[in-house]
Amino acid sequence: MLLPKFNYHEPRSVDETTRLLGEIGREASVLAGGTDLLVNMKLGKTAPKHVVSLSRIEELRRVRRGQGSLTLGACVTAGGLNEHEEIKAEFNGLCQSAGSLGSPLIRNLATVGGNIVTARPAADLPPSLIAYGASILLKKEKSERTLPLDEFFKGPGQTLREPDEILCAVILNAPPPYSGGGYVKLGVRKALEISLVNVAAFLALDGPNGPIKEARIVLGAVAPIPIRSPSAEAVLMGDKPDDELFEKAGNAASKDAKPIDDFRGSAEYRREMVKVLTKRALKQAYEEAKLREWRRWK
Amino acid sequence: MKTLINIKVNGRAWDLAVEPNRTLLDVLRHDLELTGTKRGCDLGECGSCTVILNGKPVNSCLVLAIQANGAEVLTIEGLAGPSGLHPLQRAFVEKGAIQCGFCTPGMILSASSLLQKNPKPGEEEIRTALSGNLCRCTGYQKIVEAIQSVGERGQG
User: Fold this and answer.
1) In terms of domains, do B57 and B109 share one?
2) Does B59 lie in the same domain as B114?
3) Coil vs helix vs strand at A45
4) Which of A3, A53, A102 has its CB closest to that of B67?
5) pLDDT of residue A292
6) Contact B20 A55 (CB under 8 A)
7) Which residues in chain B have their CB less than 8 angstroms from residue A34's CB?
8) Residue A296 pLDDT level (bands cut at 50, 70, 90)
9) How far apart are CA A100 and CA A118, in angstroms?
10) Of B25, B53, B78, which marks where a domain is finished?
């Protein structure tokens, strides 16, 4: 398959990129990992006049630890995230979701930023990033803004990103003590698969055995955008974590899901699976909360 | 407009003039005549175009040649040493892990990358590492056994 012709740009810095997008943003596509853009161009779904590659911008590939926070450059790859031991120790759910994306070959190309801005309803990273309370940094010429990732998505393929903006980084706050995250993906096969349903969970406890003082449940592939489940979160808040409570939360989450029927599965099946996956993601989150506390004392 | 790129393939440096819309896969196959790297789906699904780009296995159909400017690329042609086949290649022959052979270069490169990180991988780890490489002859079992035999002999 031939790629359509385009003008190629390879800016060396974020400033240079935003200046360029200020001029040609409306006719340009930003190239990060290429695992979506180049496929769509080959299939004739898009034919941008300009392609602006981020691959030469060193700072976008960096992982930085600040005071109580972690900043992931937009071009950190899913594979890099999945194998990053320090990140795994604090954000296991996030690494799980990075390890579920595509295949090992795709993960070595696909980027964190790309998985966000393409805004696919079944994407792997956004649910777990939202569960960990991530915000994103968007820059354009002479201005920048930070917003919660939760507010960024507007519909399939649609976000608040303006044509002259680039997503530069994802910012995560260090998780509080006695907290953990989980991510469970269901597909027809294990690799190179689009989620039928995915669920990310985050729990923070008020001590080693609870009660739960912070809970976030995010459902993927069951609505036009990844959605929080307020009902499940309400069930969890203030209660002691155990299997029975997780089951109740799963039932509540299933009521918040708004899945559709498609060739991958029926809406009814997806709603049932939300129950199971929510329960499993919560168990993972709780296990991680206990494990992290144990590591801290060791 | 063509752009001049410099790329090192299997240890040899090349200066090439490429159009921006050409993939690394096409440049390897057509300009450098390294046809061991296969074009299967051309969409990142099948893994037959696997190459090692700066130390990591990737689908070369999803990388623009121009993005590989300054990079080091290893293709299946560069895997064998001066003393003959790479242990993985030998194991694939010995164990009959080749049927039509189309997926083999990609399988072997993904496996070599796994063995570098993890010299004695278990079956599950091997299957995960190969999950981006499809074999339409469905010869997976022998492929896994071949890789396991290299791991056990510590030759990776």
Assistant:
1) no
2) no
3) coil
4) A53
5) 77
6) no
7) 62-64, 67
8) low
9) 17
10) B78
Number of domains in chain A: 3
List, for residues A88-138, the tens digit of each pLDDT value: 999 999 999 999 999 999 999 999 999 999 999 999 999 999 999 999 999
Taking every pair of C-alpha atoms in chain A, what is the biggest distance, in angstroms? 59
Tokens at residue A72, please?
């992931």
Contact A193, A123 (CB under 8 A): no
Length of chain A measured in residues: 298
Q: Which residue of B has its CA nearest to A10?
A: B67
Laid out side by side, the sheet with A212-220 consists of A179-186, A197-205, A212-220, A227-228
Cβ atoms of residues A224 and A188 within 8 Å: no
Is residue A1, in this structure, part of any structural domain at all?
A: no
Higher pLDDT, A297 or B14: B14
pLDDT for B22 beyond 90: yes
Do B25 and B41 contact (CB within 8 A), yes or no? no
Determine, yes or no, domain membership for A298: no
Q: In what order do the strands lie in the sheet with B12-18?
A: B12-18, B3-9, B72-74, B50-53, B56-59
Look up the ipTM and state it: 0.96
Separation in Å, CA of B57 to nearest CA in chain A:
6
Mark whether A248 and A160 lie in a shared domain: no
**Angle A256-A257-A261 (CA atoms, 0-180°, nearest 5)?**
150
